[in-house]
TrEMBL record:
Residue numbers binding a divalent metal cation 1: 100, 111, 239
Naturally occurring in which organism (per UniProt): Streptomyces axinellae
Protein name per UniProt: Methionine aminopeptidase
Gene: map_2
Source organism superkingdom: Bacteria
Details of cofactor binding: Binds 2 divalent metal cations per subunit. Has a high-affinity and a low affinity metal-binding site. The true nature of the physiological cofactor is under debate. The enzyme is active with cobalt, zinc, manganese or divalent iron ions. Most likely, methionine aminopeptidases function as mononuclear Fe(2+)-metalloproteases under physiological conditions, and the catalytically relevant metal-binding site has been assigned to the histidine-containing high-affinity site.
Main EC class the enzyme belongs to: hydrolase
Family recorded in the similarity comment: Belongs to the peptidase M24A family. Methionine aminopeptidase type 1 subfamily.
Length: 260
């Protein structure tokens, strides 16, 4: 299913996107050395409830997971990259943490992810990998405009990731979003320009470049959800929800001015 939102729905999407950004930044500030992943999940649950919103994750049970997910935010540490299920783990100095969050409010969902390093240790290779996903996300957003094809966005993302030397997995990528979290079209993190669905004003997309340092192969954790690099290498993931407008792309999940 591909949805095209009207003006009222777009206004709701902006509100939901702002909420997602606020929660992610609040959780980033609270993610310090010694913070437990289960506390991050608990704090996220409280913020979602306080806002009168709904989690897109807690009852999520797709075919590829051992569902339902049962938590309110994805917390992926180091070699984990996607669907990181919170567990009893305290963050250590230098951990690479990815927080991925999707919520729904007033019938419209938004989805975003951030990767960052915890504490004072900043391994250069991890900093560079996070930066590559952020640059790839910016390139995909820049390519998103009415009349562009999904392949144009995939090509822009893949050019940055591949140019930085990272293998690219095409099993999981970006997606349409609207009244539900995951919709068509699929947005691969690499592809050929000029191919695929033609973008229209009112379309919402969640673009999410992610990479693993030295492999494109994933393995599933014993929890049935968390996807990790097959080699145990570190990973990074950046995501925004955007709305296609008459003028290009509007980012709905940007942090407020003054926040990172």
């Amino acid at each position: 299913m591909i949805e095209i939102l009207n003006r009222t729905q777009l206004d709701r999407a902006r509100e939901t996107g702002a909420l997602v950004a606020d929660i992610l930044q609040a959780m980033k500030r609270r993610s310090k050395v010694g913070t437990n992943l289960l506390d991050i999940d608990k704090w996220t649950k409280a913020m979602i409830a306080e806002a009168g919103a709904l989690s897109c994750y807690v009852d999520y049970a797709p075919s590829f997971g051992r569902g339902p997910f049962g938590h309110y935010i994805c917390t992926a540490v180091n070699d984990a990259v996607l669907h990181g299920r919170p567990y009893d783990y305290r963050l250590a100095d230098g951990d690479l943490l990815t927080l991925d969050l999707a919520v729904s409010k007033a019938g419209v969902a938004a989805d975003a992810a951030i990767s960052f390093l915890v504490g004072g240790e900043k391994p250069p290779e991890s900093v560079e990998m996070i930066d590559a996903t952020e640059r790839a996300l910016a390139a995909g957003i820049a390519a998103a405009k009415p009349g562009a094809r999904i392949g144009d966005l995939s090509h822009a993302i893949g050019t940055v990731l591949g140019g930085a030397g990272y293998p690219i997995n095409t099993q999981f990528g970006g997606h349409g979003i609207g009244s539900t979290m995951h919709q068509d079209p699929h947005v691969s993190n690499t592809g050929r320009p000029g191919r695929g669905y033609k973008l229209r004003p009112g379309l919402l997309l969640a673009l999410e470049p992610w990479v693993m340092a030295d492999t494109a192969e994933l393995v599933t954790d014993a929890d049935g959800w968390t996807l990790r690099s097959a080699t145990g290498c570190r990973t990074a993931h950046s995501e925004h929800t955007i709305a296609i407008t008459e003028d290009g792309a509007e980012i709905l999940t940007l942090p407020k001015p003054g926040q990172p």
